[in-house]
Write a structure and sequence with these properties.
Layout (H helix, E strand, L loop, with lengths): L1 H5 L2 H34 L15 H13 L4 E5 L5 H10 L3 E5 L2 H10 L6 E5 L2 H9 L8 E5 L9 H11 L3 E6 L22 H10 L2 E6 L13 E6 L2 H6 L5 E4 L3
């Protein structure tokens, strides 16, 4: 009888989904390992190039440059260092100190090696939420900061919690989130980890409302973008900063329903 129970559709479906998830995780690990090895062999030191930083997206880089020019930022905060390409790009382009964290020990060590010549780049190994909580208790909490959130690779999606920490810790900030759905341009790639874990506005609707955030999406269509063609969203408290961003040619404000 117990054998028959194991052959029920629900049991078989559960086993199939479990195997599918394990295979997906294995594939992801292999891709990450290949990226690490390729980078170590080809680019053991960070070297600026059009195809790296912000997924090699020219319009994303324009958004960053426009935001940097619109306000006087004291520092940049990043979650999800990965190989350090965007970290290095943001530092060299802006001239601002960058504080970044990476959960994966392999990528943390690799980015530390590649960015070793940049004294104003501060790298940490650890969970992005603990990292942001620590910065929230430092002098950086009184500064105007640009925050780049890209620590969403794993089953434990930290994005909503990251935004809660930021909203309770800073008054003057601009957040740019990578791999985010652009609602009216489905050609842009965005991360979707299953029910309730898609990087879309519904995931952040409560924190957007709670912190009275203005929402901006890229002005450029995906068909005009280069590189990885990943979507993004920019969030900023309504006020002086949001008014400045509303004038930028690379962004368009999105009216929440």
């Amino acid at each position: 009888m117990s054998l028959l129970k194991k052959l029920t559709p629900d049991f078989l479906r559960g086993r199939y989904l479990n195997i599918q998830k394990r295979l997906q995780n294995l594939e992801l690990e292999v891709r990450h390992l290949n990226s690490a090895v390729d980078t170590m062999l080809v680019s053991p030191r960070y070297v600026p190039a059009d195809e790296i930083g912000f997924n090699g997206q020219k319009h994303r880089k324009k958004i960053f440059a426009d935001i940097m020019g619109a306000a006087s930022f004291d520092a940049i905060i990043e979650t999800g260092t990965w190989l350090g390409n965007t970290t290095g790009f943001m530092h060299l382009t802006s001239g601002k100190p960058v504080y970044s964290c990476e959960l994966n020990p392999r990528f943390a060590a690799l980015s530390r090696m590649r960015l070793a010549d940049m004294d104003q780049v501060h790298l940490q190994l650890g969970d992005s939420r603990k990292f942001l909580q620590a910065l929230r208790g430092s002098d950086l909490a009184t500064k105007t900061v640009f925050i780049y959130l890209d620590a969403h690779w794993y089953d434990d999606l930290p994005l909503a919690e990251e935004m809660e920490i930021i909203g309770s810790g800073w008054k003057n900030y601009v957040v740019l989130i990578d791999d985010f759905q652009v609602p009216d341009d489905r050609e842009y790639y965005y991360d979707n980890y299953g029910e309730g874990k898609a990087l879309e506005l519904s995931l952040l609707s409560e924190v957007i409302r709670k912190n009275n955030l203005a929402v901006f999406f890229p002005q450029a269509r995906c068909s005009e973008e280069t590189g990885g063609c990943c979507g993004c969203v920019v969030l900023v408290p309504r006020g002086e900063l949001s008014q400045k961003l509303a004038k930028l040619p690379s962004l368009r404000e999105w009216k929440m329903a």
